[in-house]
Amino acid sequence: GINRMETLGVVGESGCGKSTLGRCILRLHEPTAGEVIFENQNILECSKAEMKELRSKMQIIFQDPYASLNPRMTVSQAIAAPLIIQGIYKASEKEKIQKRVAEMMDVVGLASRLVNSYPHELDGGRRQRIGIARALSLNPKFIVCDEPVSALDVSIQAQIINLLKELQDKYNLTYLFISHDLSVVEHISDTVGVMYLGKMVELADSYELVARSLHPYTKSLISAIPIADPIKARASKRIVLQGDVPSPLNPPTGCRFRTRCPYADECCAQKEPEWREVEKGHYVACHHVEKINA
User: Fold this and answer.
1) Are residues 51 and 27 in contact, defined by beta-carbon separation less than 8 angstroms?
2) In the 8-state DSSP scheme, what is residue 194?
3) Which of 84, 129, 145, 162 has its CA 20 to 30 A from that of 63?
4) Averaged in consecutive runs of 10 residues, what is the pLDDT profile of the chain (294 residues)?
């Protein structure tokens, strides 16, 4: 579960199911099983009309601001579109729409002179600010941030991360923050979950996860984070995993990580590890977690 006004980070390799998880929560993809509880309501049982009403409370910021914006829409039209689609304003109420658009542009740090610009005239950071303004325009309570900075220059990434944190404090937002970069997730998240091949393998407070990871997959991810200090970097040991990620269509039996895990044995091949609370608030799915961390 994600606590109100907090951020759950989800990290893992490309293709592990992070984005699919976020889209299933919003029902942009239809899940094959399970439940998604939002404000004590299972949204998978909602009708189309009920889902349309919920859309204003649940929004998404997409990974690629180059692909997620209509190239034929100006900044103003892109931010106004959700307001018209959700029936907040009628298309004829131009003054009200312009006022709301100007307000949202100011909130996300877009200069008012860009109101009639097209996406191709702007850089990646400004395009992503349009995506954030568009998501915020409906006053949502919950936002899925689907790798919102991975397509941006590193120099711009920090600006967008800081903006998202400021907006969370200002509007009491709840985030699901998806990324393949653990250092980014650690910075913005209260709690972090690590995914591998469609399964969650570890979940803990963000500081606890980085300072004291328990699952061998999480340990390998943390060992790959670059260290700025060259002396510490040389002293640190990189944990290199063997082989490639198996096909999600034909995952290994038992523990899905066993084909790349240095601790795997026959038990791992036969039985799927139980998802359990090893320490208070620290969940792991691994047969040998105690032995590995003894």
Assistant:
1) yes
2) E
3) 84
4) 93 90 92 90 90 91 90 95 93 94 96 95 94 95 94 90 95 95 90 94 94 93 80 76 85 94 93 94 95 87
**Positions of E strands within the chain:** 7-11, 37-38, 41-42, 58-61, 142-146, 174-179, 191-196, 199-205, 275-279, 282-285
- What CA–CA distances, in Å, run from 215 to 50, 150, 201, 208, 246? 40, 25, 7, 13, 18
Q: Give the pLDDT of residue 238.
A: 79
Q: How far is CA 278 from CA 226, 229, 284, 286, in A?
A: 28, 33, 7, 10
For the whole prediction, is pTM greater than 0.90? yes
Cα–Cα distance between 170 and 109 in angstroms, integer? 14
Report the distance separating Cα 74 and Cα 79, nearest Å: 9
Token pair of 189 as six digits: 């998240």
Cβ-proximal residues to 273 (8 Å cutoff; 6+ apart), any chain: 254, 255, 285, 286, 287
Instruction: Extract the tokens encoding 126.
Output: 């400004």
Q: Specify the length of the chain in residues.
A: 294
Beta bridge partners of 196: 199
Tokens standing for residue 286? 């691994």
pLDDT of res. 174: 97
Burial code of 197-210, b = ≥16 C-beta within 10 A, e = fewer? Answer: bebbbbbbbbebbb
Tokens 């390998």 locate to: 220
Q: What letter would DSSP give residue 245?
A: P
| Contact indicator for 279, 290 with CB cutoff of 8 Å | no
DSSP string, 73-118: S-HHHHHHHHHHHTTSS-TT-HHHHHHHHHHHHHHTT--GGGTT--
What are the tokens at 287?
A: 């047969």
